[in-house]
Amino acid sequence: MKAFIGALALIFVAAQAARGAPLEATFASTTYHRIAVDGVSIFYREAGPKAAQTIVLLHGFPSSSREFDTLIPLLATRYHVIAPDFPGFGQSETPPPSSYAYTFDHLAETMNALLDKLDIKRNSFYLHDYGGPIGFRIMLAHPDRVQSLIIQNANVYQEGLGAKWVNIKKYWSDPKSHPEVFEAFVSRAATEQRHTLGTSLPDRYNPDTWTDEYTHLSKPGQRAIQQALLYDYRTNVASYSKWQAWLRAHRPPTLVVWGRNDPSFTAPGAEAFRRDLPHAEIHLLDAGHFALDEKNDEIADLILQFLANEGAPSPARQ
């Protein structure tokens, strides 16, 4: 009887693996590292078998690779996962702007140099928020790196820019005349609302997340860093057409998992990917900007299914 039950268990595990469903994992599978890159000490999380396909997770503002804490163990059952903190974020070094240029071009160069140091030649990218413009810069410079894309509220279309961007564009035109825009951008209220706006499940959101993020934003030197990056963000919007052209030219297998209630990067920004990637798989989730806060297991399952079927992209669906 025990042998029969054991055989059934093996059949179940094999069936789960075949369809890409998550397997049991623990946080113990994640390790934590530092490495000198581009003159900066970069912190990164790593999990999963190094011989497996690599997924590089690029985080959003004002978070760090910590935002992937609950996702990493689910992906690492089958994939090698790397999640770095950008310079100035999380546990990575925070050099002053006088010694490190805080532009998206430079952040992308540093992250690409990290992948070189880790000998990661080809990988899938998970892009969220600031991770989007950093990832797209890496991909344009090194298209051979790209195995597939997973895009979660990382905007590359004008129609995806929410109402707040009207004031941010005023800041770009004359930062000194609009200090209130930056103050609102890094305020405690905005830090909390990036997580909680658009959710119908507020009890799934850990307040430690935004209190820790706001504490980080309040550290000495952070204002200059974040002012530089907010101002430089205008170069990302200016690059949208170039990034869209790259998508049309290269057609990477793409999964879009988007919190449709995000007031910053709105749902039309997710749907717009169909124009350039007609075979992209698009899912609009009932969540906000940090969709992993409440849809972690669902997103993990979608990623595993997508990567399992990556060789044969299916028609777009939502």
CATH superfamily: Alpha/Beta hydrolase fold, catalytic domain
Q: Specify the structural class.
A: alpha/beta
Please indicate the percent range of residues in DSSP E strands (runs of 2 or more). Answer: 15-25%
Radius of gyration: 19 Å
CATH fold-level topology? Rossmann fold
Outline the biggest β-sheet: 8 strands, mixed
Topology (SSEs and partners):
Layout: H1 2-18, E1 30-37, E2 40-47, E3 54-58, H2 72-75, E4 80-84, H3 104-117, E5 123-128, H4 131-141, E6 146-152, H5 165-173, H6 179-185, H7 188-196, H8 207-217, H9 222-232, H10 234-238, H11 240-250, E7 254-259, H12 267-271, H13 273-276, E8 281-285, H14 292-308
Parallel strand pairs: 3-4, 3-5, 5-6, 6-7, 7-8
Antiparallel strand pairs: 1-2, 2-4
Helix pairs in contact: 3-4, 7-8
